[in-house]
C-alpha cells in the first residue's frame, strides 16, 4: 500500500462483498464513514459472531485459529459459513490502510444480515475493523485484580442446553460487560466465572490458566467456555519449554492456591492475576515477559 491509500483516521473498516453491498472490491474506509444498516440483525438482535485479534508489529496473531473459531461460532448459530478467504484478505487490506503502530486490534464481524421489509434476510454481512488497542503495559507487568462471579448455570450447559450458544463468540456481549461493571463495583479489574456446580470457567473476555509447579492447566472447553486462541498459543510455548500443559476441570481452590495464574485474551494477551477476591496471588513477572516475547513477539 502506498501513503495515498492510508486512511488518515485512527480506525479503518473494510466491508466484505455481499449483504446487499454493490461493490465486490475491498475498499478501506475511515470508521467514522463506515455505515451498517439499521436493520442488520447484528445491530437489532446481536445475531452474529465476531473475533478480536491482537496485532503486533503489523502481524495479526494466531490468525488461522481465529478464522477457524469464527467458522465454528457461525456453525453453532446456524449462520451461513463465513468466507474465510475474503475475511483474511479484508484483514490484510485494513491493516495495510491503518497507520502503523506497535500494537493494534483487528475485529472481524459476521452477521446474519439485513432483515428486509418483507422479513427475508439479505445477508450475510461481514466487515473488518482495525483499531488502536488500549495500553496493556501495566496489566501485563503488574497483573490484574480478579473477583469470582456466579455464572448462573451448570458446567454441563453446552450439552444440556446448546441453544444458549456457550462456546460461540456471539455479538451478544451485554452480559459480559455487565460482569465487568460488577468487578469495578467490587474494586477489581476483571472476573472469573464459576458455574453453579462449583467449576472454574473463564472470564467475560478471557481464559484462565493456573500454574502449580511445572504444570499449567486451563478449564476444558466442553465446560461451556470459549476455546481461547491466546491460551492455545501460551500452551504451545509452555510445551515447547518441556513443561506440562493440560485442559482440566478446575475449582476456585485451584486458582486460590496457584503458584501463578493468568487471564489470556487477544488484546491484552497475558495478564497475571495478582489478587483473587482481595487475597494476593504470586506474580511471576519474568516468566510472563518471556512468554509474551516468545509466543507473541512482544518485547518488554
Ligand atoms: N472467553 C471469552 C468469553 C472471550 O470473550 C474471550 C475473548 O474475547 C476469550 C475467552 C479469550 O479468547 P482469545 O484468547 O481467543 O481472545
Automatic annotation (TrEMBL):
EC number(s) on file: 4.1.3.38
GO molecular function, one term: 4-amino-4-deoxychorismate lyase activity
One GO location term (cellular component): cytosol
Keyword Lyase: yes
Class of the enzyme per the UniProt entry, highest EC level: lyase
Keywords: Lyase
Gene3D superfamilies: 3.30.470.10, D-amino Acid Aminotransferase, subunit A, domain 2 (3.20.10.10)
UniProt xrefs under Pfam families: Aminotran_4
InterPro entries: Aminotrans_IV (IPR001544), Aminotransferase-like (IPR036038), BCAT-like_C (IPR043132), BCAT-like_N (IPR043131), Class-IV_PLP-Dep_Aminotrnsfr (IPR050571)
An example Gene Ontology biological process: carboxylic acid biosynthetic process
Oxidoreductase as UniProt keyword: no
Entry's family note: Belongs to the class-IV pyridoxal-phosphate-dependent aminotransferase family.
Matches recorded under PANTHER family: AMINO-ACID AMINOTRANSFERASE, AMINODEOXYCHORISMATE LYASE
Listed name of the protein: 4-amino-4-deoxychorismate lyase
Organism: Herbiconiux flava
Lineage: Bacteria, Bacillati, Actinomycetota, Actinomycetes, Micrococcales
